[in-house]
Amino acid sequence: MPRLLLKCAVKRAVKVPVLFLAASLLLFLTAHISAQSNAPGKTAKIASIAVTGSTKIPSDQFVAATGLKSGDVVSAAQIQEVADRISALGLFSSVKYRFSSKGDSIALEFQVQDAATVPLWFDNFPWFTDDELAGAIRQQVGLFAGEAPSSGSMLDQISDALSALLATHKITGTVVHELVAPPSGDGMVLLFKVQGAETKVISVHFGDALASNSEKLKDRISDIEGQPYSRFSLETFELEQLRPLYVAAAYLRARIGPPQSKLASNSAGVEVVIPIQPGPAYTWKGASWQGNVSSPSTSLNALLPLKPGDIADGIKLEDTWRKIESEYQQRGYVDAKLDAQPQFDDVNHQVSYLVSIVEGPQYRMGNMVITGLSVDGEKALRKAWQIPPGQIFDQSYFQKFIKILAKPSAQIFGEIPVHYTEFGNWLQPNTDRHVMDVLFDFK
Question: Which of 32, 142, 186, 272 is the most exposed place for a label (fewest CB within 10 A)?
């Protein structure tokens, strides 16, 4: 069952002023100004309604959501109420409107700006397809167009629509949502799920023999089988268990998932199938290097764990790229970044990597600033620190050192009575002199 990605915007309340003047005066009524009216209670007929500024919501859909239409007789307060209600949805970062008078009628124009959005997932609705869920939302949420805000009243409307769908099928549960980090990728997602109506996974089947026959996966299948059904958990399993299995076996372009699920015929639980297209297994052809000024390519090649013709174990390669980056940081290149891009030869099923390295400047040890320790404690700490001023700064040594300092340690302070409950540390690079100052704060 493919997941439905929805996007959402940040709620921003809007207060729009209203002022009826002469027919020739074009009024811009904007957010954050107190409502005004020279003629309290005055009404006018709407001649037309226009919408500008949104690239996500069609104008006719927006107008329908306002509840206004040509021919309606409205007051300033009614227009204000519509603007506030639309703003409260959270879909727009700005909601403004203006109108011009034409006799006893007005031409009304809403000016809006779309807000930033985040994806939305449906987590545990095995009774319905994504299309059915989206259709139920569209019937009740006027401005739903495959997107949703990260806050605002639209989230409550979506929850209500999903709750109504559950009720029509006599499914008892509470729809909730939360902002979470996805199993893979950047950013955040809004996860909608049902509490109180969980169904368990009763079987899991893999779409390829490597996964089906893996003893390691058999030991981990209990992570999902027999557990409450959750698409989020299934995708986490794919990322943490299935992907490493195939990448280590050189199936570097394996396509895994998304998981497909259906209710068992006896409604005893959910049956899950995880599609897998392994593709070819690749052999190692080598690496080429760019940007490696301080390290010759021969030295970098010596760090590679594979020889030409070996199975291209992607897990070993990923570890190698991290180790090379760490090697640079140990030699003072604290900003070093490595980008390894595979180059596939699909005719011969070989893979090589183009590895680009941005080394950045090499830093040496600068000053050490210590606050919050006694004189004896500070002397002991400076004595324990093994990078003297002017020496190449080793970031890996710094990381190990602060782990020891996380709590008072005899390894550093010996028998000196040192007590602290909070420990802060900072690196302060001097980009002109290429020195790294180290700051430690104890409380």
Answer: 186
